[in-house]
Amino acid sequence: MSATREAVTNQDGAARRPGRRAANAEPYTLASLVEVAAHAFLERGYDATSMEDLSRAAGITKSSFYHHVSGKEALLRGALDRALDGLFGVLGEPDALEGPPVPRLRHIVRRQVEVLATELPYVTLLLRLRGNTETERWALGRRREFDQAVAALVREATEAGATHPGVDPVIAARLLSGTVNSLIEWYRPERVAVADLVDAVERQVFEGLLGGLRPSR
Amino acid sequence: MSATREAVTNQDGAARRPGRRAANAEPYTLASLVEVAAHAFLERGYDATSMEDLSRAAGITKSSFYHHVSGKEALLRGALDRALDGLFGVLGEPDALEGPPVPRLRHIVRRQVEVLATELPYVTLLLRLRGNTETERWALGRRREFDQAVAALVREATEAGATHPGVDPVIAARLLSGTVNSLIEWYRPERVAVADLVDAVERQVFEGLLGGLRPSR
DNA sequence: GTGTGCCGAACGATCGTTCGGTGGGTAGAG
DNA sequence: CTCTACCCACCGAACGATCGTTCGGCACAC
Fold first, then answer.
1. What is A73-206's CATH number, 3.20.20.80, 2.40.128.110, 1.10.10.10, 1.10.357.10?
2. Where are the domains of chain B?
3. DSSP secondary structure string, A144-195?
4. ipTM of this model?
5. A23 CA from D20 C1′ (Å)
6. Residue nearest to nucleotide C15 (CA to C1')
7. Is the confidence at residue B46, as pLDDT, over 90?
8. What's the fold here for domain B77-206?
9. What is the pLDDT of residues A34-48, one digit of tens each?
10. Domain A1-69, what fold?
């Protein structure tokens, strides 16, 4: 199928020796191959995707593929790194660190949705992990850190009396994460604009499906 | 490890020839082996779980396992059948068929949560499908039918003016399904009672995390 | 004897990975 | 400039391991 090498953001740490390859082609960086791999993993799942599939998607043979990548797990690791960097970057933003809990929560939810939408294949991979290998367990641990940071904010909000009376902050935080993370199951950038998605998620999470002042039943 | 054969609801269609096996042991029905398989799939994922794993969990060798089950895909099919039967059973209940859209939606959400909680491994399997085989694509098609039935109700509710003004019914339905389905990622029956879960999900879906001025119920 | 539950062994296929080699291009010496 | 030695992206073939599945036979209850 399609070579899938168009317009790769060449964000490889130390640029590969230039001038060696033919002038027209761009080199196979780790990041570009991680991108190819992540899209394949997204479609078929990690286990069901073979290195043969990946190398064919990259346009070279399996053995050539190994010239650029140390192995399958390195591709997974690279994709998970990218996803986790995006998520933890949100937690470090000023609006996520300062102010009352509810506005901070709103900011995190909105930005988290943006990260999910822009880094969709990578985050999808992160959210589908089962913890079968050491790499997967490491990523699951970091993901749990993120969830716990959000859960702490939800608890703050409930203790401040900002939520519905009777809301269990633990369950509420789980449902919050679940709602946001479930985007990966259906969201496709070409169908819905990111800005619309962000607004819709924020409203549904904080105000619910039904109106606040309107009679709900 | 534990044999995992305790108290299996023997709901195998045509009961296996009884009285042949030793008097103390109960036979390996398809349903009981599907249960074993579903729990293993839940932990490690379908592809990462080998028939060796399954047979060992059932307490017999791999070749003996094949004496009772036609193959791996049949176990998947059995589990998916059970999940889909539970979900479509909800759609057929009177409270899901009659009345204004919002109460019907509330009933479906509450009952859907109950089904997810009680049939957790089976529904989890259904929600993690990637569509790699014909069986998986069939199940994904049926699951899409369910989602579309719920989406149609959400659209009815918005057209009746019952929801927030400006709510996109398509996105709202996706988020609704996502919130409910995300239960499989964290819910464990021994930690939270089903009744509490049902109430929490209903409130969060319809009234949101913050909610209006008045108490929800 | 007969049938059934169970098992060890092995099947072909496919997996991720390795290895030796090749061909075209560059860099350096003349 | 030409010649040469080298480098490296790339490839075909094969590795051992593991997969799902099959087969022939053993033991025991009827």
1. 1.10.357.10
2. 1-69, 77-206
3. HHHHHHHHHHHHHHHHTT-S-TT--HHHHHHHHHHHHHGGGGT--TTTS-HH
4. 0.84
5. 47
6. A50
7. yes
8. Tetracycline Repressor; domain 2 (1.10.357)
9. 999 999 999 999 999
10. Arc Repressor Mutant, subunit A (1.10.10)
